[in-house]
Amino acid sequence: MTILPRSYYLNPDVAFLAKDLLGKCLVTQFDGKLTSGMIVETEAYAGVTDKASHAYGNRRTVRTEVMYSIGGTAYVYLCYGMHSLFNIVTNREGIPDAILIRGIVPDEGTGIMLQRTGKDSVTKNFGIGPGNVSKALGIHYSHTGLDITRKTLKKKDTGIWLEERGFVVDPGKIQITTRIGVQYAGEDASRPYRFVLH
Hints:
The chain has helices spanning 6-9, 14-20, 110-117, 130-137, and strands at 2-3, 25-30, 33-46, 73-79, 83-90, 97-106, 159-164, 174-177, 194-197.
């Protein structure tokens, strides 16, 4: 199990990274509770040139400022006043590219995930949908800005990180589509920036 280093997130091709993240493991540790899941769905957002991005046109607000951080930083925002959505900032500092994690397959800590979500069992679509990802893994919008390139050393520490666990992704099982819910982005809504591992 190798933690993805800072250099991994500095790749300037956000679409490549979004696809490459499939099969990687997203790990969280909060209040001594460790949970993880394999990433099976992502969406890429290409910073200032992408009308679907929160940073389109070099938009800078209190919420989006973290997108201009160095790659390997968490960008978590509140959607519809209720769902925390987890994104990974990529590229070098000042270029606000980001990847939304839209789906996971639970791995460690499934009992904890069930408690967090109020579910009785892990169903096929348990970790599908960005709101479900964050709820299951305990990610909250207050975690925005966290450095995700380091594993927490103490059990009580707060941390989010990604690991390479040797899962080999079959390219033939990757579906590439347009993104969900970005019709407002005009021609950019047709970008093939959503990646799903079946």
